[in-house]
Structures are given as structure tokens and as C-alpha cells.
Amino acid sequence: MTKPIVVGLDGSRESLAAADWGARAALLRGAPLRLVHAWEGPPSADFADARRPDLTVPQFWARRVLRGAVDRIGERHPQLYMSAEQVRLPPRQALLAEADSAELLVLGHDGAGGPGGLLSGSVALSVVARATVPVVLVRASFTAADEHRQPDDTPGGPLPGHDLPYRDVVVAVDPARPCEGHLRFAFEEAARRNATVDAVHIWHLPYETAPAPLPGAHARAAQAAEHALERRLAPWREKFPTVRVRSAAVHARTAHEIVHAAHGAGLLVVGRRPRRAGVGPHTGPVTHAVLHHVACPVVVVPHE
């Protein structure tokens, strides 16, 4: 049975954008869409409790959030199989439980951990740090049109009767670490979209602060970085011969180069090592930087 694309809702603009993105992703995959609203109500409520305003108001709001999202998605994508459920658990616990049986988990994110919604800040980052499936974070400003190149970006314009092509799928690659999971995701997604994979490896010399670098060290390191990246990409080029691939080994010291590479992309894919610490999000410097500064949806793929 095909696993669902699960979207966490909290009524914010970000979570509605996540629901829209999740619906499009479900259609591309031929997968069902599952909308979830987590509401931490009492474990049980008797008849008297059911009439208390402090319980009925949030429950009414939760149902309204779900009903509004279902109506919105149903109107835009009537062919999509969809389910919705209100879950009586804390949001982080509910979403991590949902992730165990999902293909993808999709959340809204405001980019700053600010007041964009309950799932937009610390809860979303905590889920990203612990989920065992890819988590997609979507900003409120990202729309279906943003996934496609605009006429000015398409050489010669789109072919008659064809939609505008999808924007690139950018993937951050560190050849020194496991990256099969997020490379697989990037190539599979590019194949679905008939898009280009733009693979970026950021490297730097460990002794660049020294007064006098060794002669030729930079050129040799650059060549080694390019070769290492190509070795990582070679099996995926072979598995996906129809997917167009660009690669670049960029000399830089900061994860913000990934932000620059993702400018104008339709999707950015990064990897994340599982974190066992129980306190704080612990998403790592690259993930932290891209989640706060990249405009397109970011897919965080866990790996060992």
C-alpha cells in the first residue's frame, strides 16, 4: 500500500502552503494525502467537560482548521484521495508518530521560528531533528507557480501545449559523509518533475588562515573536491540517465553558499544525521542556515 504524504496543520498561512505543496507532491507520486491537526485535549472528557468553553473553543477551532484545509484542497485537486484527522496529542509527539507511517512529512515554516504558527518554529525544528522520514518545510509565500520557471527563465519559451518546466532540484552534497538518502530523493524528485539536479559541494582548506598556504595546494584541493563530488554522483547519473545534472564544487567556508546556490530553485534537498540529544532542535549548521534563509521548500532527509 502506498504510504501517504502527511501534512501538519495549525491554521497558519505557512501550514496552508504546506498543505498545498503536499497535495501537489501526492499527485506527482500517486499517493494519498493525510491532513493532521494536533490538539492536546484531555485524555478523556465526560459530558460536563464537553461543555466547558476552555475545551470546546479549541476543539471547534481544530475542526475548523481541518475542514477549511479539506475544502481548499478538494476544490483545487478533486482527483486527490485525502483524509483528515484531529489527533489528541502534543504537536511534536503527534507528528513524529505520523511520520512513522508516512512517505513524507510536510510542515509550514516561517524561516525565523517566529509567530507564524505553532508548527512554524520550535516544534517544526524539533520534528526535523528527530523524524525518521524526509521532512519538507514550506514557506507561506511559496506557491504552485513558484515551482515552475517563468517565461523569461525558459529559453525560447515553453513549447505550445506544454506547461512551464519545473525549476531545479538543488542538493547539498558532502562526499565525506553519507549522502545516498538525499541524493536518491533529489534524483527521484527531479525525474518526477523532469527537472535538473543541481548538486553542490562546499569545501575549504583546513589551514587557509595560515600566513602562507603551500604552493598549488588550492588547485589540488579544488580538483580533489570536484573528483569526490563526481564519484558520488556517478552511480546516480547511471540510475537516472534521463535526468539532467549540473555539479559544482564551491570553495567557501560557510553554509550560506548553499543558500546562494538555492536561489531560484524549486526545491532544496539536504541531509541530516540523527541526533540523540533530548534537548533542543539540533539540526546542524547547514540545515539551520538553509531553513532560515532559503525561499523554496527545503527537504531534510535523515541518514545514519
Describe the 3D structure.
The protein has eight helices and ten strands. By secondary structure, the protein is of the alpha/beta class. A ten-stranded mixed sheet has the order 3-2-1-4-5-10-9-6-7-8, with helices on both faces. The longest helix has 24 residues, at 53-76.
Key words describing this protein structure:
ten-stranded mixed sheet, 304 residues, alpha/beta, 10 strands, 18% strand, 8 helices, 37% helix
Name the quaternary structure: single chain
Roughly how many Å apart are the termini?
Answer: 26 Å
Strand order of the largest sheet: 3-2-1-4-5-10-9-6-7-8
Unreliable stretches covering 5 or more consecutive residues: none
The secondary-structure class comes to alpha/beta
Shape designation: globular
- For the CA atoms, what is the radius of gyration? 21 Å
Compact summary:
The protein is α/β, with parallel strands linked by helices. It has 8 helices and 10 strands. The chain is globular.
Which helices and strands, and how do they pair?
Blueprint: E1 5-9, H1 13-29, E2 33-38, H2 53-76, E3 82-87, H3 91-99, E4 104-108, H4 122-130, E5 135-138, E6 169-172, H5 180-193, E7 197-203, H6 217-239, E8 245-251, H7 256-261, E9 267-272, H8 285-293, E10 298-302
Parallel strand pairs: 1-2, 1-4, 2-3, 4-5, 6-7, 6-9, 7-8, 9-10
Antiparallel strand pairs: 5-10
Helix pairs in contact: 3-4
